[in-house]
Amino acid sequence: MQLELAAERLAELGHSTRLAIFRHLVRCGPDGCRVGGLQETLGIPGSTLSHHLGRLINVGLVEQQREGRILYCLPNIDALNDTIEYLTQECCAGRHEGDAACAPDPALVKTNRSKVR
Fold it and tell me: Which CATH code of 2.40.30.60, 1.10.10.10, 3.30.70.1230, 3.20.20.140 fits the domain covering 3-101?
């Protein structure tokens, strides 16, 4: 995954309405839910919901499927997992390589030393 895609996905999830939409879709599971049901549950006007869904679709976090006249929104869990993996893939790597930028700042490290009187 590229830095830009991760940043775009995180930016879209950084909006409270889009985060609520995505969390609800995750709650619905891999089969997703009807757009109408999503609108009713979250109390979002249709045009607003459409706008936010479009942004989530553009970054690959949500997909849509039509069955007849019913439109379903599905969470793309793989895209979410890829984004999370991108954030954590190098966890602690600098510490093991002796990266000076990863060394703790002594001024910020709390100590548990007792005061001696």
Answer: 1.10.10.10
